[in-house]
Design brief:
Length: 309
């Protein structure tokens, strides 16, 4: 399967952030989260409502085995009520561990996750990734992630709870969702795109959730670049529309976001309850805390995001 077509190459060049934050930068658009963006997020806390945006981390997760090694979380007890002094009347403890693909549940993609033509973000050669992990651009470089979040409810734009097809989200639809929200997107904001697609995951249709999905089109990269968005996450498995717009180009949004823009992107975020609240009270902005687990050298990071309104 070929790489980017010529029109997509031209798009990638227009939105490229290569060198914008220096030759050694490893955070990409997260650099846009400055003091003003954080304070704007803090000012969005007006009601004291909290929402967890993570799906359960368990064996019933969204993975089907189609992506080798990206296994659903498996929990194992390694100690159960162990009396370390030998006397159960004294100190006893239980302990456990887990194994999973780092992108199996709610997660951020690291900038090392996707490249093309031998390069990752900021012109970094993809040889920095070895069996030992990512020597550069690992998820640990994201650091603390907290800013104003804005929910864009694209499903509500169309008056539906979810899409039954591979709906292609456009720039105009993002603008329409921002109009519904009554919010102006500002530099450093984190955008959450709600499609309602988790409907299929909740119904137990994991293949349907993964294989046919609404999502962002490649053209929306210019929208995110124009608004200086710090990161984007969705309630879908892939973030971009699936099947892809052009059957000859696999995951062009991933390529452009991660390799050219350095735009942090997240998938499998649970936005249903937040979207219902936003529609009910009319507040679509909030403080978002979403720091990934800093697993050194990882190409993705588990996260349990919290929205606070």
């Amino acid at each position: 399967m070929p790489g980017l077509s010529e029109p997509l190459r031209e798009l990638a060049a227009r939105v490229s952030n290569r060198g914008r934050w220096g030759a050694d930068d490893q955070r990409g658009t997260l650099n846009l989260i400055d003091q003003a963006a954080v304070l704007r997020g803090a000012a969005a806390v007006r009601q004291g409502k909290t929402f967890s945006l993570a799906v359960p981390f368990d064996a019933d997760g969204p993975q089907t085995g189609a992506i080798p090694g990206r296994d659903n979380p498996v929990h194992e007890m390694v100690a159960v009520n162990v009396a370390y002094t030998g006397d159960p009347a004294g100190f006893t403890t239980s302990d456990d561990r887990m194994s999973m693909g780092v992108q199996a549940a709610t997660h951020w993609d690291a900038l090392s996750h996707v490249g093309y033509e031998g390069l990752l973000y900021n012109g970094t050669p993809d040889t920095v990734i070895t069996e030992a992990g990512a020597a550069q651009l690992g998820i640990e470089h994201y650091g603390a992630v907290a800013s104003r979040g804005v929910l864009l409810d694209v499903a509500r734009v169309h008056g539906v709870g979810h899409f039954d097809d591979a709906h292609q989200i456009t720039c105009d639809e993002l603008d329409a969702a921002a109009d519904i929200a009554g919010v102006t997107i500002e530099a450093g904001d984190i955008v959450l795109v709600h499609t309602g697609h988790m409907h299929f995951l909740h119904a137990g249709e994991r293949d349907r959730y993964r294989m046919t999905s609404p999502g962002l089109t490649a053209a929306t990269a210019e929208w995110f670049h124009r608004h200086d968005v710090a990161a984007v996450a969705t309630d879908t498995f892939v973030l971009e529309v699936m099947p892809c717009e052009d059957p000859a180009v696999l995951l062009p949004v991933h390529m452009i976001h991660l390799r050219d823009m350095g735009l942090a992107q997240g998938q499998i975020w649970f936005t249903d309850e937040l979207a219902a609240s936003c529609a009910g009270d009319g507040q679509y902005d909030f403080m978002l805390a979403a720091t990934p687990i800093p697993l050194t050298g990882a190409t993705g990071g588990m996260v349990a995001p919290t929205a606070i309104k």
